[in-house]
Amino acid sequence: MIRLGKVGWICLVVMMASICVVQTVIAQDYPKKPIVLVNPYDVGGTTDLLMRCVMGVATSYIEQPFVMEIKAGGGGAIGSDYVAKAAPDGYTLLCGGTGSNSIPPAIMGRSKGPDDLDGVAQINYDSPFVFVRSDSPFKTFKDAIQYAKANPNKLVTGHTGVWGAVDVAWKMVKRQTGIVTRDVPHQGGGQTVLALLGGQVDIIVGGYASAVPHIKAGKLRVLAYMGPERFAELPDVPIAKEQGINVTQIFRRSVMAPKGTPRPIINKLGDVFKKVSEDKSFIAMIKQIGQEVKYLDPDEFTKAWREEYEEYKELGKMFK
């Protein structure tokens, strides 16, 4: 153990005070240039649409604009790794969440989790839906499950990675029902919707945002919602539990920063995203893409993120 004398303690206190002063000055001067918000998924998916909603209103609450940079691949791992390696100066942020920053690091040791990134804020959350084409013979989720039970490996599904968020939801369905399906991975939610429309897959679990134009156009049918209660925009669609499939999933959508980003900058960004989450136009846009606004500040989000990460570690043991 290192023992400090009176002079040593004085020097330590002065040094710590100096660091706090420097960080405060940095935060006051921040931002001096545009802030890159990295999308770890493809264009047209739920994260992409969320980021566009954020950027549409954030300019009212911060001195510099947010600009999107797409770093898709690996179920969000490529973009997450990119941000984790960026300078911790507040100019490179990740729009991540459960699917890229809780499930893969907790279950597979892949991508970046709470040990690798600093939490800035949770903006909102959503739960997945089950979709088929409008010409599908499946009228309910139970129809699809019954077909899969009678025809092992015949039902073809699309998902966003071996341990992506929606893939975990589907794994839970398979585990509970005992069905065996052929699962085809894609780069993101937008790609799975295109695969479904093109007939490459029979059924997908995914976000409402990337599917809603095709639902309104009559090209897709919604079989189930995997949230805790019925989705307000689609009140006639039953939740999975109502169809005898006891699976509920909630996916956080959040902002993270490289580890070591100065706390005053984290706090300033947290305040910005809080104002965004309270913006009436933002709330309206979010509801249109099938998501729920649920802001958590840096401390609240970091705590919730860690708890979620540990829960998925335990869940992962069930599939090994």
What is the strand and helix layout of this fold?
Blueprint lengths: L5 H23 L6 E5 L6 H13 L7 E5 L6 H8 L7 E6 H4 L1 H5 L9 E10 L2 E5 L7 H10 L5 E4 L5 H13 L4 E4 L3 H9 L5 E4 L1 H9 L3 E6 L25 E8 L4 H16 L1 H9 L3 E5 L1 H21 L2
Parallel strand pairs: 1-2, 1-3, 6-7, 6-8
Antiparallel strand pairs: 3-10, 4-10, 4-11, 5-8, 5-9
Helix pairs in contact: 1-10, 2-11
Overview of this protein structure:
- It is a single chain.
- With 320 residues, this protein is α/β, with parallel strands linked by helices.
- The chain folds into two domains: 31-125 and 251-318, 3-Layer(aba) Sandwich (D-Maltodextrin-Binding Protein, domain 2), CATH 3.40.190.150; 129-243, Periplasmic binding protein-like II (D-Maltodextrin-Binding Protein, domain 2), CATH 3.40.190.10.
- It is 44% helix and 19% strand.
- The chain contains twelve helices and eleven strands.
- Strands 2-1-3-10-4-11 form a six-stranded mixed β-sheet, with helices on both faces.
- Helix 7 (165-177) links the parallel strand 6 (156-159) and strand 7 (182-185).
- Helix 1 (6-28) runs parallel beside helix 10 and helix 2 runs antiparallel to helix 11 (280-288).
- The longest helix has 23 residues, at 6-28.
- It is globular, with a radius of gyration of 22 Å.
- The relative contact order is 0.18.
Quick gist of this model?
The chain is of the alpha/beta class. The protein has helices at about 5-30, 45-60, 75-85, 100, 105, 140-150, 165-175, 190-195, 210-215, 265-280, 280-290, 300-320, and strands spanning about 35-40, 65-70, 90-95, 115-125, 130-135, 155-160, 180-185, 205, 220-225, 250-260, 290-295.
